[in-house]
Structures are given as structure tokens and as C-alpha cells.
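Quick log. Single chain, no ligands specified.
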Amino acid sequence: MIAVCCGATKGQELVAPPRAPIPPRAAKVFTAAPAIPTVPDPELQIDTPPDGGVAESGYTLDVLLRLAGRNNPTLRQAQLHISAELGKAQQAGLYPNPIFSYEAEQIGVDVEGNKDSPGEFQGGVLEQRFVTAGKLRLSREKYLRRAHVSEHLATVQQFRVCNDVRLHFYRALAAGETLAIRRELLKSSEDAAVTAQEAYNMGQSRRPEVRRANITLQRARLSVMRAENAQRESFRRLTALVGVALTEGAVEGSLAPEREPTSFDSELGRLLAESPEVAAARAKLAVDRATVERERVEWVPDLVARGGAGYNFEAGETVAVAGLSLELPIYDRNQGTIRQARADYARQQQELRRIELGLRNRLAMTYERYLSSLQHVYEYERVILPESKAAYAELLESYKRDRVDWPDVLMAQHDYFDAKLMQVDNLLEARTHEVLIAGYLLHDGLMAAGGPTPPGHINATPKPR
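-> predicted structure:
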């Protein structure tokens, strides 16, 4: 049938225009797969050691603890607190020094018609204060008790430093294990990227799948870089706690928990009975009790005796002088300071209770995390890691028999390494809270050592009492 155009005259035939040439089929044009991304630029790895981060030396926990004991400045601070309180005890118990004065009376008085006379009396006088009511003994006892508080606080600081060294040691250990697993994961991602390229070249995968493999590879490289940074950061923080410069290296030890788990009530009983924080609070309560006793006798007047000899120019002979004085406690009987000392004592009783409740609260949180992480450690070790490893091994064997594809094997391998990473986190969590529970919940080894006097309490005066 011949098509006729509406505008054509009758009987006129239309000729169809020639067809355009047919282009080649798209399937015959080969498109290269997306290239595997290169490693990050060296400018982004400015903190990487020239040797690639290979550790030449290893440090054990015992070595680091010994170094911290000799070099951490807060431990020295704690010892100086003890020395300072012993110095106050010594000073508070010293007897007052005598006072010598030279006295001249009525200089220029008319003596036998001489108006330029040296006066009626000139001579030396010695004055001595005699302390009553055992004030010096009570003052010395008070500061000796404060030195005892400082000893407990020094024990607190020692636990803070040692626990913090342990915590950062295990963090550095976990960072090293995490880095090793991340490097294995990087190898797996590299294999996956190459596999995706080959599958694409064989027409078995699409370009988006290759791009996803490239993204996964680059993320794995970034994860390795992050793990390397974390390892260096953990070692440097450990060096700061030790207090001496260490050659950058690795730590040697095990993340596996060592302490037998016990019940919460058992740990709470041990904590309240043995905590150096509680011991320091009880010792401070004894200080405040001694302070009350000391302030109660402060109003008792001391005796001040004066005695001397000189020459009486009017009488023309040597004479003596003597005197005795004491303050009359009519208005000031130290009422306000006694009231303050009693308030300090009552406040310290509540402080002791507050510390015990605070320890209970901190232990509750720490024990829950310790128990949960310990359960995860045991179950990962018992079930999850063996099952993941077995799944990977079975898929690898099936691949060798051409029953599964290689990406399935890589996925199983990735799952197994992910489980190992989670186990490292579980072990670190368990170790961290194990250290805190065993070490009376004390940490932060660079916090300044505490002194024996809480804010607001009566403190030293120029002459301690």
C-alpha cells in the first residue's frame, strides 16, 4: 500500500526518505572498569614514622609500673603533703620563744638637780609565755593526725597512678591488636576490589558493584590509618603517665581477664572495708575530733611572766623587776571557733557517708559493665568466634570445589574479622573494669594529689594550732 500525503495531488506517489545508517551495537563497545583507587597521599600521613611504624622495643606492665613509681610527679606531691603536715606538727608543738626587752623609765627626770639624768630606772627584762591546758600537745596531735590523713591520700594517689598505667597499657595493647586485624581486613578488601574488577571484565558484575568494592577498599585503608593513629596516641598517653620519655614502641601482655569474678555484694564489702578513700575520710574525722578538743581549751589563758634587773638612779642602787599577767576570758572564750570546729566534725561525718554512697554508686555502674563485657568475652570465645571461623573455612573449601563464588568467601572472611574486632573491644572493656574494681575505682593518675584539709575547714595559721 502506497501512503498518500494529504497535501498531494491525486495520483501522485510519495517516495520514503532513505534510512539513516544503523550504528554498531552498544554491546560491542568495551568500557573499562573503574580503576582501583590509589593509597592516600603521603601528606595525610605526616605522623607516620619513617620506618613504617615497626616497633623496635616492647614494654611490659611491670616495667611501666616501676617507671611510673619513680617518675610520676603526683606521687612526689603526695609524699610532700605528708612532709608538710609533719612540719606543721613540729611547729605547732614548739614552745614560745622568750622575749627580751631593755627598759628605761622617766628619762630626763630631775635627779639631785640634774635635769639631763638617765632617768629613774634602766635595765633588761625577760618575758616568757607559759602555755596552759596542754594546748601544744593537742596541736601537735592534731597535725600528726593530719599527716596520717596525708598518708592515706598518698595511697589513694598511688592507686590512681598504677590503675591509670594499667588502663592505658591495656588500651595500647588493644590498639595494637586492632591494628593487626585492620590490616588483615585491608588485605580482604584488596582481594574484593580485584575480584570485582575481574568479574566485571568477564561480564559477571556491573560497574556500580566495582565502585562499591573500591569504596570498601578505601574505607579499609582509612580504618588502618585510624588504627595506626590510635596506637600511637595510646602509647603517648601511656608515656605521659609514666612521667619519662619512652622510645615509641609496642607493649607486651595479654588482654585476657585474670581476676575471678565475684558477686556485687562481695565487691562492695571489700570496697567499703579496704578503700583508701574511706580510710582517709575516717582519718579526717579523727582530725576534726582533735580540732574540737584543741579549740575547746584555746580560751584558757596563758601565763606571761616578766622578770629583770636594772639600776635605779634615784635610789642609787641595783633593783629587780617582776610581773605576771594573764588574759581575762570575759567576752572572748573562742565560742565561734569552737562552733565552727564542731560543724566541721559534723560535716565530715556526712562526708564519710557521702563517700561510702558514692563508692556504692560508682561500683554499681562499673560492675554492670564489667559483668556484661565478661559475658560477651566468654560467649564470643565459646560460640561466635569458632562459628565465624568455621563458616569462613567451609565457604573457602566450597569455593575450591566450585560450589560458591569468591565474593561469598570474602564476605565470610570479613564477618570473621569483624567478630575478632568485637572481641578485642570486649576484652578491653572487661580488663578496664576489672582494673577499676580491683583498684578501688581509682584512676586519673595525672590529677594533682589531694591535701588533708577539705575546702571550708579550719586551716593553718602563722602559728599552727
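The beta strands are 58-60, 99-105, 121-130, 250-252, 303-312, 317-326.
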